[in-house]
Amino acid sequence: MIAKRYREMLNQKSVIREISAYGAERAKEIGYENVFDFSLGNPSVPAPQIVNETIARLALEGDSLAVHGYSPSLGIDGVRQAIADSLNRRFGMNYKKAHIFPTSGAAAALAHAVRAVTEPGNEVLAFAPYFSEYVPYINESGAVLKIVPANPEDFQINFEAFAAMLNPNVHAVLINTPNNPSGVIYSADTLRKLAALLKEKEQAYGHDIYIISDEPYREIVFDGKEAPYTSNYYDNTISCYSFSKSLSLPGERIGYIAVNPACQDAALLVEIFGQISRGIGHNCPSSIIQLAIGELLDNTAELQVYETNMHILYDALTEMGYSCVKPDGTFYMFPKSLEPDAVAFCNKAKEFDLLLVPGDGFGCPGHFRMAYCVPTEKVVRSLDAFRKLADYYQQR
């Protein structure tokens, strides 16, 4: 017998992946260069050459047993310490290796974090707009994901709605800043207000409430801004990171969890992550990619192209009549659709070979997501299609 819940998940496939697959088929018909696919958040800049050189050197010159053997269940000690040292330099923290747990990307980090701090049936709150895959990440752990409605004016936290949803069964709050899909960074004031409210509720409810901070876009920020580091604002913070975006390494599936040292039982949580790995079959990222990352922590890919693409699109689309909160970072923007039904709008966009993702799956009907991690020349060529789409709606 096949498990019923996974059969049911077949009817809830990722809309993003389905649109991307449509784009691949459409490209076979009219050419890749003629399909303006803004569906999938796959980095469009290559990994730095130093990444390839480091991996090659480790493979050719490293100790084969260390490079290709099993790593310790909690990750390679030297790599964990290197990550701790990097975070301490950058954010004024005091991590030790005991607070760091390497994972197979941010998704695995989230899977471990939520299992460590919730029991089945506990609630996890997240804020719209949110990454749609949070639903299986959280609900398949046994916890229950509930979504706080968005503040569409600026996509900062809707504190009135959040306060109304807090209750003693809430054990974790999942945040994503810089945010997918809006590109907005939660301000320091937002994080301070969030921290104060959670501290108040921890005392009222008599148990810890953890912030699980999903941070894969931390390095992609625009216009000289900085992304405040959540652990600087709230003790019970578990940071989940991936090198998929900063180093353009999505296929390597490498990231980590960093437990705030001020967190209750911080080092114990990392030990628990090792036990969770036993239950979900995670069992560490590959040794060679851990070792490589340990040497590459101060490097990024050439991320400036995303800022260039954002400005081209934001300036052009708002001039055409689209409405959008200006992104602070990431490689996403989240405009309002030109009709209330974003699904219908995105289907109409396909007629102009524009592949956009409806905001319904991100908790914000009436919006659409654009992943502008595409070549800049293609961004520029797409503007005519956006203009034709806008003209269609203006002439209705």
Map the helices and strands:
Elements: H1 4-9, H2 15-30, E1 36-37, H3 49-61, H4 64-68, H5 77-91, E2 100-103, H6 105-117, E3 123-127, H7 134-139, E4 144-148, H8 159-165, E5 170-176, H9 188-205, E6 210-214, E7 237-242, E8 255-259, H10 266-280, H11 287-295, H12 304-320, E9 332-333, H13 342-350, E10 354-355, E11 357-358, E12 368-371, H14 376-394
Parallel strand pairs: 1-10, 3-4, 3-5, 5-6, 6-7
Antiparallel strand pairs: 2-8, 7-8, 9-12, 11-12
Helix pairs in contact: 3-11, 5-11, 6-10, 12-14
- The multimeric state of the shown protein is single chain
By DSSP (H or I, 4+ residues per run), the number of helices equals 14
Structural class: alpha/beta
Can you give the mean pLDDT? 95
Shape: globular
Helix content: 40-55%
**What's the gyration radius in Å?**
21 Å
What fold name stands as the CATH topology of the largest domain?
A: Aspartate Aminotransferase, domain 2
Biggest sheet layout: 7 strands, mixed
Low-confidence stretches: none
**So what's the CATH class of the largest domain?**
Alpha Beta
Beta-strand fraction estimate: 5-15%
Overview of this protein structure:
- This protein is of the alpha/beta class and 396 residues long.
- The chain folds into two domains: 4-47 and 302-394, Aspartate Aminotransferase, domain 1, CATH 3.90.1150; 69-295, Type I PLP-dependent aspartate aminotransferase-like (Major domain) (Aspartate Aminotransferase, domain 2, 3-Layer(aba) Sandwich).
- Helices cover 42% and strands 12% of the residues.
- It has 14 helices and twelve strands.
- The protein has helices at residues 4-9, 15-30, 49-61, 64-68, 77-91, 105-117, 134-139, 159-165, 188-205, 266-280, 287-295, 304-320, 342-350, 376-394; strands spanning 36-37, 100-103, 123-127, 144-148, 170-176, 210-214, 237-242, 255-259, 332-333, 354-355, 357-358, 368-371.
- Strands 2-8-7-6-5-3-4 form a seven-stranded mixed sheet, with helices on both faces. It has a three-stranded antiparallel sheet with strand order 9-12-11.
- Strand 5 (170-176), helix 9 (188-205) and strand 6 form a beta-alpha-beta unit.
- Helix 5 runs parallel beside helix 11 (287-295).
- The model has no long low-confidence stretch (mean pLDDT 95).
